[in-house]
Amino acid sequence: MEQIKEKIDVDEENKSVSFLALEGDVLKQYKSYKITLDVVPKDDRVCIAKWTWEYEKLNDDVPPPTRYTAFVADYTRDLETRLLSES
């Protein structure tokens, strides 16, 4: 389990949500860490979720933040389930 304090920015017009790390465990390895979800409509009933990672390592020995992809996948599935139940 890790802790993070983040700033969440929602851009409803562009269908985007950004999560910017302000404090927490992730900043022990990364100088900056931000993930963004963009929802891209394909037609009236289908959208594509596109995640973008922006980060700066504290040093060259730090691995890419792939360990957080499970959280993102779970978040995407939960969001999809919630949105489908509302439609």
UniProtKB/TrEMBL annotation:
The Bet v I/Major latex protein domain extends over 1-86
User: Which superkingdom, per the lineage?
Assistant: Eukaryota
What SUPFAM superfamilies would the database entry show? Bet v1-like (SSF55961)
**UniProt xrefs under InterPro entries:** Bet_v_I/MLP, MLP-like, START-like_dom_sf
- Any one Pfam family match given in the protein's UniProt record, by short name: Bet_v_1
Using the record, list the residue span of the signal peptide; answer none if the entry has no such feature: none
Q: Which PANTHER family match?
A: POLYKETIDE CYCLASE/DEHYDRASE AND LIPID TRANSPORT SUPERFAMILY PROTEIN (PTHR31338), POLYKETIDE CYCLASE_DEHYDRASE AND LIPID TRANSPORT SUPERFAMILY PROTEIN (PTHR31338:SF16)
Q: Which family does it belong to?
A: Belongs to the MLP family.
Tell me what this protein is called. Major latex protein
**Species of origin:** Cardamine amara subsp. amara
